Amino acid sequence: MTGSHSTAVFLPTGLLGQSTLPTSRRRNTSANPENIDAKFASIDLVAVHSDSKLVKDCRIQVGHGLLGWVAEQGRPIHLAPCDGSGSVLALYVDHEPIKSLVAVPIVVHHLFASSSVRAHSPLQADTLAQSPYGVLMCDSTKAEGFSNSEVKALEHFSVIIQRLLFWALRAESGAHVETSWERFKQKTAELGDAIGHSSIEILRIRLESLRTLEVSGGVSLAVQMSEQFFRLAQQAIPPHFPCVRLPDGDVAVAVDNMMSSFFQQKLQTLANHLGAPEMPFQIGIECYRAKVASGGQCNVDTTLQQVPVSIRNSNNLGGVRA
């Protein structure tokens, strides 16, 4: 940010195994110390760029102060101008003439949807599900330090940080980041060996609402909805049916053609539940019958180059092809 005085990233304490902290915090400062809930106690400063003297190992209690409020509520703030000093941020050692502030949440809850990442985390699964948000903040000594476009850019940066955290945690857990295209083809071949290659159908799910979501809610909302649908699809499809995300954002799944109709309906139901009446999440499902190569195996590349089968014209009755 061109007008920033300091830029900082805060993450929930213990997220990356920085330290061991109690997994509870007080509901408010006046409450009895025993009156606690099952959320993280605080957020920690993990990255910063500033010329000012900062509090060593800065830690902010969730729900306290401006940044603690963002961590608790998951909502951005943009104060311009703001009357106060850097002391309200609990970041600076000395008085700092801060006149404007932008702070946006970093979504971390979904990072633990992967069981392999969750298993290697130093925190308990039920605690992770209730984790607070991380915070990305910029402040300025100018009363109008940030334009609307810079605030929007900061929201996009928070999504980038979110994705970097995902890859870092997956790599640390030793899990595969995501099924590659070659891996998908290999698993499809193995499925064909088990059920017969001519019995395979490939479903291609197009996320038709992404462009609309990006225009109405920004890139972060579109990415969040795409991630959420992919996770739900992975959970809905049995593990022996390979699933992969394609470069254009589509999702491809290889299934037994006797169960194709059932999974099409299940994926459509997931999309309906994911959306809202004022902003539906629409998908399109294309169904491809396996093209068997000369070697007798399903050729995935050739299969997806065919004209998709019309769902209306494929005589599927309760998931069984007539």
Major sheet strand order = 5-4-1-8-7-6
CATH architecture label of the largest domain = 2-Layer Sandwich
Strand content: 15-25%
Runs in which pLDDT lies below 50 for 5 or more consecutive residues are 18-39, 113-120, 312-322
Full CATH superfamily name of the largest domain: GAF domain
What name does the CATH topology of the largest domain carry? Beta-Lactamase
Query: What is the end-to-end distance?
Result: 61 Å
| Count of helical regions | 9
Tally of structural domains: 2
Structural class per helix/strand content? alpha+beta
What does the secondary structure layout of this molecule look like, with pairings?
Layout: E1 6-12, E2 25-26, E3 36-37, E4 42-50, E5 59-61, H1 65-73, E6 77-79, E7 100-106, H2 115-120, H3 125-129, E8 134-140, H4 148-173, H5 181-195, E9 200-207, H6 210-217, H7 219-236, E10 243-245, E11 251-256, H8 260-274, E12 283-289, H9 300-303, E13 316-317, E14 320-321
Antiparallel strand pairs: 1-4, 1-8, 2-3, 4-5, 6-7, 7-8, 9-11, 9-12, 10-11, 13-14
Helix pairs in contact: 6-7, 7-8
